[in-house]
Input
Amino acid sequence: MQYLLLIYGNEQNSAEMNKAAGEAMMTEYRVYTDDIAKSGHYKGGNALQPTKTATTVKVRDGKRQLTDGPFAETREQLGGYYLVDAKDLDEATDLAARIPGAKWGSIEIRPVWSMPSA
Amino acid sequence: MSVVSPRETIARLYRDESPRVLATLIRLLGDFDTAEEALQDAFAVAVEQWEHNGLPAKPFAWLVSTARFRAIDRIRRDARFTSDLDGRAVDAQAPERADSSFDDESGVGDDRLRLIFTCCHPAIAREAQVALTLRTVCGLTTDEIARAFLIPVPTMAQRLVRATGKIRDAGIPYRVPATNDLAPRLDAVLAVVYLVFTEGYAASAGDEVVRVDLCGEAIRLGRLIVELMPAAGDAKGLLALMLLHDARRGTRTTDSGELILLEEQDRSRWDAAQIAEGLSLVEAALRQGPTGAYSIQAAIAALHAKAASAANTDWRQIAALYSLLVERAPSAVVELNHAVAVAMVDGPAAGLLLADSVAARGELRSYHLLYAVRADLLRRLDRRTLALAEYRKALELATLEPERRFLRSRISELQLRDSDRAPASRES
Output
C-alpha cells in the first residue's frame, strides 16, 4: 500500500531556528530520506515553503475565488510530506515515527486511495 | 433425556463457534465485512442442510469451508460486473481443494489472538476498540453492545462500521505484533478488557435484566488471553483481579441498591471458588513476573479476599503494594488509595497528610472520592466541622445514587452528633 506521511509543525518555531540547528535538521532529513530510499519505501517527498506563501483557490458557480493564505489557520502547519510504500499501517507508522519532525511536530499517516486499475 | 432439536443445536453452535469461525475467516478472506457476510451465509446453509442430514462430523471445519465457498461465489459474481478482483486475498482459482483443509483446528487460537490484537490496535479509538472486541471476539450483537453501553443502536452500528472500514482502508494488519512491539500492544488489549469489566462492574446495580453481563464477557476474554498467551504474566494478573472483584459483586449493594462498604459486606456470601481461582492466578502472575500493574492490583484484591474480616485485613502489606503501584503505574487515584491504606496502618493523621498532598496538586479537584476520603479521615480524627464540609463537597460531585445516599447518611450522622455536643467544638 502507499501512504502519504504529512509533516506538521509550528513553522514559527522553525523560522526562529538558528543556522546551526537548521543545518542539523536538514542533515537529519537527508539521512532519513537516503535510508528509506535504500530500503525501497521512498516514493516521493518534498519540503514546502511556509504558509505565508500559500494561496487558496475555490471555484463557485464557475467563478474563481482566491484567498491569500492556507485553507485553515491551525496551530501546526503542513511543512512537507513523504509518499511511501509500506506493507501495512504498522510499517507506515514505523517509517513516520522516524521522520525527524515527529520529535517536535506530528505526522499524519494517510493511506492513498487505490483506484481500480483501468 | 431431553431431545435437542437440530435448530437448537445450530443456535448453540452459532453462539459458541461463530467467534472462532469468524477469526479464521477474516484471515482467509482478508476483510471483516466479507468474513461476516460469509459467516451468516454459512449458517443459513447449515440450518437447511443439518436439519435433514444431521450434524457434520466436524462442524468448525464444515462452517469455515462452506463460508469460504460462499465468499468466493460472491466475489466471482461481483467480479463479473466489475471485471476486477480488487486485489482480494482470496485464491479464487483453487477452492476445490479446500474441503478438508480446515479439519485441523490447531491454528484457531492464533487466529483469535490476531483478531484480538487487530480489534485493539492503537490506531482505532478506544471506544471503538471496545465495541469491535465485543462484536467480533465475544460474538455479541450490535444491539447487545449498544444496550450495555447505553447508547443508541445506530450510533453503535456506525462506530463498528467506521472501525472495520478503517482496518480495511488504512491497512491495519491482522497479526500478533512482533516481540519488540508486543508489551505496549498487550497493554492496550488488557486495557480494553479491563474497561469492559469496570463498565459492567459500575453498572451492576442497574437494570441487569436487559443488559448483557459485561463482567462475564470481560472474564471470558481474560481467560482466552491467558490461554492463548501463557507467557503474559500481567494477563494472569488482570484475570485474577477481575475474578476477585467479581467474587464479591453480589454483596456490594443491598437488594434495594444501597451501597455496602467493603468492611460491612457479608464475607460468607463471597464466591469462594472464584476467590480460590483468583488467588492461584495472582501467585502464578507474581512468580512469573515482571510484576505489572494489574498483578499488583490483583495482589491487593487478594489480601482483601483472604481476610476473614475487615479488622483482620493485612493493611501493612496492602500499603506496601500501593506504594509499589505508585512507582510502577503512577496516578493520583493510586496515591489516594495508598493514603487510605497508610491510614489503616499508621492512623488517620498519617493518611490525611498523604491525602492532603494529593489534594494540593489539584488533579483530583472534581473527583468525589478525594473529598470522601478526606472527610472520613477527618471524621476519625474527630475534626467534625471540617469533615462535614468535605462530605458536602463529595456529595456535590458524586453522581451514583447509592454513593450519594451513603454520603448523605454520613452527613446527617455528623450533624446529629454535633447537636448533642456543646456548641463550641474544639476544631483545629
In short: Chain A touches chain B through 14 residues (CB under 8 Å).
